[in-house]
Design a protein that fits this description.
Strand order of the largest sheet: 1-10-9-4-5-6
Number of helices: 5
Strand content: 25-35%
Helix content: 25-40%
Largest sheet: 6 strands, mixed
CATH class: Alpha Beta
Number of domains: 1
Number of strands: 10
Order of helices and strands: HEEEEHEHEHEEEEH
CATH architecture: 3-Layer(aba) Sandwich
Structural class: alpha+beta
Length: 202
């Protein structure tokens, strides 16, 4: 599967109505959203087939990733990165909730999502749902997808944009990362944001 090579980050930013803080960009690994963008989200299903509302109401910061369980390369790489970030944060990882949101409602049932995310870290939450609900959430983040049909109805691949989105506990987008983002730098971003929010450990 290929990522969307023609995707221009600046164009995406403008298309979804987000703006970047000019003064903050050099100080963060991610592109900072200024002002923070409130995510409306929607009703999805967790790995136990229970209805949940995304963004999750957990009181934690959330790292949202979009993809699908049949993804051969980008999604495993991105979830591996999320697991490494939790490891890098150490005890502070309790403040961060990685969330993997499906773009493939046809194949990604709750059991498939649980099996897939569990390969990387049990703390990663997998969410799926009906096509309309998933598309509505993906649209909030400007996620781009394209389907390539195989020889059978279920033999298809999905080309998709692959970014990591950092949300604060209020469900507002604060930073946006490419899949190539550096793990220690992401951890530093989080700790700085927590300091700014008065949440740093004493």
């Amino acid at each position: 599967m290929r990522t969307v090579k023609s995707l221009c980050l600046a164009a995406l930013w403008a298309a979804i109505g987000w703006s970047a803080g000019a003064g903050a960009a050099p100080e963060f690994q991610g592109l900072r959203v200024e002002p923070p963008k409130a995510i409306r989200g929607g009703a999805l299903l967790d790995a136990q087939n229970r209805p949940v509302t995304f963004p999750l109401n957990t009181g934690k910061w959330q790292l949202a990733v979009f993809g699908y369980t049949h993804c051969p390369d980008v999604c495993p790489m991105t979830l591996h990165k999320a697991a490494l970030l939790l490891e890098q944060l150490g005890a502070d990882a309790a403040r961060l909730q990685p969330v993997f949101i499906s773009i493939d409602s046809g194949r990604d049932n709750p059991a498939a999502m649980q099996a897939f995310t569990g390969q990387f870290d049990a703390r990663i939450v997998g969410l799926t749902g009906d096509p309309e609900a998933l598309q509505a959430v993906a649209n909030e983040f400007g996620v781009l997808t394209r389907r390539f049909q195989g020889k059978t109805a279920l033999a298809y691949t999905l080309e998709h944009s692959s970014f990591l989105y950092l949300l604060d506990p209020a469900g507002r987008a604060r930073l946006m990362y490419p899949a190539t983002a550096d793990i220690p730098a992401m951890a530093n971003d989080l700790r700085r944001l927590w300091r700014e929010a008065g949440m740093a450990k004493q």
